[in-house]
Amino acid sequence: MKHINIPIFIPHLGCPFTCVFCDQNRISSTQEIPGEMEVLRIVEKHLETIPSGSEVEIAFFGGNFTAVEKASQEIYLASVKRYLQDGRVQGIRISTRPDCIDVEILDFLRKRGVRTIELGVQSLADEVLKASWRGYQADDVFKACYLIKEYGFRLGIQLMIGLPGDKLELDMKTAEQVIALRPDMVRIYPTLVIAGTHLEKLYLKGEYTPLTLAEALQISLAAYLQFQKENIPVIRMGLQPGEELQREGCVVAGPFHPAFGEMVEQEAFKAQAQKLIEEFVIAHGQHSQLLLLVHPRDISKVTGQRRSNLNYLKKQFGLELIKVRGTENLVRDSVGVAANDASAPALLLSRREFLEEPSYVKKYQI
Ligand code: SF4
Q1: What does each of the 366 residues of the chain score in pLDDT, given as a tens digit?
Q2: From the alpha carbon of 12, which atom of ligand 1 is closest?
Q3: Ligand 1: distance of its center to the CA of 107 in Å?
Q4: Same domain, 66 and 185
Q5: Is 15 in the pocket of ligand 1 (CB under 6 A)?
Q6: Residue 22 CB–ligand 1 contact under 6 Å
Q7: Are 165 and 313 found together in one domain?
Q8: 133 CA distance to ligand 1 middle (Å)
Q9: Is the distance from CB of 189 to CB of 239 less than 8 angstroms?
Q10: By residue range, what is the domain housing residue 279?
Q11: Could you give the CA distance from residue 304 to residue 91 in angstroms, rounded to a whole number?
Q12: Domain of 33: which CATH number?
């Protein structure tokens, strides 16, 4: 069943925290807090286009929902209750900070139809949390996650890579600890230097260096594959390229790309196709023309941006020609290979098989 979120952005004006990467002034000056009527309008508008049979959640994103005044939380949750009652919506989702969770809050949310809680964890390395002025420690995250699961909520974890004090080893350690928490979903966001933030000051003073796009892709790929191996869905990589981010001067520095998530997936397909062709060459000898077969919805992922994956593989294996064909028979995230004139794959490599490969383990598991 396809899952669809109806996003409602609740900017947390006057948030008492001061995370280095966040510009609250900009949020405050440009975002309006939606009133009850606006919330209903947004929900109705989305419901008009959602295919029947979808699993729908109304998602209050944007701030720390559980740190907003209780009366406002009550109003928001009560305003959408009718959709839960008439069955058009199956649940409510909120996002908040790990230190804004306790037993009383979870009781309150559960009674009002909240089903999924996404925590802005960002990192589980205390030094990174401290350097990013998050105001809590990894232990607070563990406590919040255990409580959320104990109360029967679905747990989402949002992570940031490339924060101050961060490095690949810490990101991979965080990924490992997150896997142990068994969340229902994960989001991965590369840190961007946004105008007006403390991080911008650090960057301008030369005290913070953002990840390059290539580094962010590499770290995200390693984490993404680890989560995939453990059957933990990664539901988003990279920030949504909304209007505000696209505004000139908003992103001062950092690995911003409007198709970041797609690029990470393309990297995964590139590595998988390379492994498969290596095996094909060993089993069937060198061919000058090859055909890759994937599920039709994976064609762009195996092809890469402007055919970058195909060009890479062509060069790597000294090929004259490499083509891609979509076939409904293949499951998603699988790649098949054959000589160019063949009608069926001579060899197949599923994502799971690829993730079990010792060479993959060596390359991506830290
Ligand atoms: S990122 Fe930090 S400062 Fe910004 S709204 Fe969230 S908690 Fe507040």
Answers
A1: 789 999 998 877 667 888 999 986 565 445 677 888 999 999 999 999 999 889 999 999 877 899 888 998 999 999 999 999 999 999 999 999 999 999 999 999 999 999 999 999 999 999 999 999 999 999 999 999 999 999 999 999 999 999 999 999 999 999 999 999 999 999 999 999 999 999 999 999 999 999 999 999 999 999 999 999 999 999 999 988 776 777 788 899 999 999 999 999 999 999 999 999 999 999 999 999 999 999 999 999 999 999 999 999 999 999 999 999 999 999 999 999 999 878 889 999 999 999 987 676 666 553
A2: 5
A3: 24
A4: yes
A5: yes
A6: yes
A7: no
A8: 10
A9: yes
A10: 270-364
A11: 36
A12: 3.20.20.70
Alpha helices in the chain (DSSP H): 24-30, 36-49, 70-79, 81-85, 103-111, 126-131, 138-150, 168-181, 198-204, 213-229, 243-246, 260-284, 299-303, 308-316, 351-356, 358-364
Q: Domain with 295 in it: what CATH number?
A: 3.30.2320
Tokens of 75: 């109003």
Letter for the amino acid at 76? Y
58: Cβ below 6 Å to ligand 1?
A: no
Structural domain count, the chain: 2
- Ligand 1 centre to CA of 22 (Å) is 6
- Kindly state whether residue 248 falls inside one of the protein's structural domains: no
Asked if residue 291 and residue 183 are part of one domain, the reply reads no
Co-location of 300 and 152 in the same domain: no
Q: How far apart are the CA of 119 and the centre of ligand 1, in A?
A: 12
Mutational test site, ligand 1, from 9, 10, 13, 17, max ligand atoms within 8 Å of CB: 17
Rounded CA-CA distance 162/236 in Å is: 17
